[in-house]
Design brief:
By secondary structure, this protein is of the alpha/beta class. Helix content is 48%, strand content 22%. A seven-stranded mixed sheet has the order 3-2-1-4-5-7-6, sandwiched between helices. The radius of gyration is 17 Å and the shape is globular. It binds S-adenosylmethionine. Belongs to the class I-like SAM-binding methyltransferase superfamily. MenG/UbiE family.
């Protein structure tokens, strides 16, 4: 069975347009600064080679796109794709401030239908995006389609702690997220949505199956901060 986010795509797009200005700050607040640490660990594990061609799907304000651009070096290229113009505008500013315009192309597009031919990229990444798309299986198939043989698909996403006590604390904390958003940036509804998609997203074990169903092999994952987030990695063997 396919994992679907029942909120219409146009609603998700306008929601991200509305929160774009506060997104980076809220990310740090909600994850208690942990997302920066997770991103560093992920990049270390990925060991991206200079000269690589990568696509960062659902790139948002560009944190992963920028980290990839640094890793691929001047001989590489990174595409950052997202459907929210406001998120892309912030990404554009951050890419320029980092001096990486020469190796980053930001594209407005739909993760469900990547506008690229088969077998193009060395690496396709998606960070905190998979739980927001209408069909996560389709997006994983699309990411697998556009990487070449031996290419890799990587996903960093919120996950579910398995320890029952940690799970209780995690749920209680996540219930506070919309309230924190109301108090800090006056965006209760938007962060209720993000809290709900986090709670509804699949377990790390189920996401392994979804990677395999998309045609990826050697699928592995590691969890961060007692299972609050998980990093999945798979390889395409054509
Ligand atoms: C939670 S943000 C993650 C942003 C960024 N990857 C990060 O790591 O911070 C999710 C992003 O996915 C984008 N998104 C959601 N559904 C999409 C779709 N179907 N096609 C393209 N982008 C989508 C949203 O616009 C938003 O920028």
């Amino acid at each position: 069975m396919s994992l679907t986010n029942k909120t219409p795509e146009t609603k998700v797009e306008s929601l991200f347009d509305q929160i774009a200005d506060n997104y980076d700050g809220m990310n740090s607040l909600i994850s208690l600064g942990n997302h920066k640490h997770w991103r560093k660990l992920v990049m270390k594990q990925l060991n991206v080679q200079p000269g690589s061609f990568a696509i960062d799907v659902c790139c948002g304000t560009g944190d992963w796109t920028i980290a990839l651009a640094r890793a691929v070096g001047p001989s590489g290229q990174v595409i950052g794709l997202d459907f929210s113009e406001e998120m892309l505008k912030i990404a554009e500013k951050k890419v320029a401030a980092a001096g990486l315009r020469d190796r980053v192309t930001l594209v407005k597009g739909d993760a469900m239908h990547l506008p690229y031919d088969d077998n193009q990229f060395d690496l396709a990444t998606i960070g905190f995006g998979l739980r927001n798309v209408p069909d996560a299986d389709q997006v994983l198939h699309e990411m697998t389609r556009v990487i070449h043989d031996q290419g890799r698909v990587a996903c960093l996403e919120t996950s579910k702690p398995t320890n029952p006590i940690i799970k209780l604390g995690w749920r209680a904390y996540f219930n506070l997220v919309p309230i924190m958003a109301k108090l800090t940036v006056n965006k209760y509804q938007e962060y209720s949505y993000l809290q709900r998609t986090t709670a509804e997203f699949v377990s790390a074990a189920k996401l392994v199956e979804m990677f395999q169903n998309a045609g990826l092999t050697d699928v592995s994952y590691r969890q961060f901060t007692f299972g609050a987030a998980a990093f999945h990695l798979g390889t395409k063997h054509a």
